[in-house]
Write a structure and sequence with these properties.
Elements lengths: L1 H13 L2 E6 L2 E6 H4 L6 H5 L14 E3 L6 H10 L7 H11 L2 H8 L2 H14 L5 H14 L6 E8 L3 H5 L1 H7 L8 E3 L8 H13 L4 E6 L14 E7 L2
Parallel strand pairs: 1-3, 4-5
Antiparallel strand pairs: 1-2, 4-7, 6-7
Helix pairs in contact: 5-6
Length: about 240
């Protein structure tokens, strides 16, 4: 079957039309379109001997979700950058290593804001990604036979806030062991901005969550701290 594939590719060069099956989605294009960017994965797959198997109809088969391959192909044909499903197309552009498309997508407002704004901020919040994983792990452990899991988070915006941490934790009546602490960070975004990020990143994994301030009992003898929030997972 390898020789047959080679003949198919040579015939495609003679009349350079290639039939593709990308995860069940059929596409037709010129061979030169697939080879447009020589250092891309597509150019590599369609240069020299074919490196792909064919399906029962003789189309070259790529075992990948083809839902957004049309947008990738449209860019190769016309340099047209999609305006919808930016993150999904970006993921495909990374997979196929189409550098001009990656660059153009990363300059769009949505990805620019995500990569340059939000991700740069979160990289300055110590242990942010690990904390998100811990929150999900605790919530799942506490989900047995209940509708909601509630986890306490402590947000310390500044080094000064960090100085009050021991006193604040000491005044907390909830289970102190499972409090997840964020901060401090050296960047402009506020506590609300961080909480928005926590909610966004947990919900992007399919969970339903809400965040509300934890109101502590007022006492004449001790200071009240507003560092605590309740993160509530809703399971059903």
């Amino acid at each position: 079957t390898g020789d047959g594939g080679a003949e198919k590719l040579h015939s495609a060069e003679a009349s350079p039309v290639v039939q593709l099956n990308v995860g069940g989605h059929p596409f037709t294009t010129f061979l030169s379109t697939l080879r447009k960017h020589p250092d891309s994965k597509l150019a590599e797959l369609f240069s020299g001997q074919p490196k792909l198997r064919t399906d029962t109809q003789g189309r070259y088969f790529l075992d990948r979700d083809g839902s957004h391959f049309g947008a990738v192909l449209e860019f190769l044909r016309s340099d047209c950058v999609p305006t919808e499903n930016i993150q999904e197309v970006h993921r495909e552009a990374l997979y196929y290593n189409i550098k001009p498309l990656i660059k153009r997508l990363e300059e769009t407002p949505r990805l620019f804001g995500e990569l340059v704004g939000r991700q740069q901020f979160l990289s300055r919040v110590p242990h942010y990604k690990e904390n998100i994983e811990v929150l999900i792990r605790i919530a799942r452990a506490e989900a047995i036979a209940t509708r909601h899991s509630t986890i306490m988070i402590c947000v310390l915006r500044t080094e000064e806030d960090l100085g009050f941490y021991d006193n604040a934790i000491g005044s907390l009546e909830a289970d102190k062991e499972s409090v997840v602490t964020f901060g401090p960070w050296k960047a402009v975004p506020s506590v609300k901005d961080l909480l928005d990020c926590v909610k966004t990143d947990i919900e992007s994994q399919g969970y339903r969550v809400s965040i509300e301030p934890h109101v502590m009992e007022k006492s004449f003898l001790s200071r009240s701290y507003d560092y605590f929030y309740k993160l509530i997972f809703t399971w059903w």
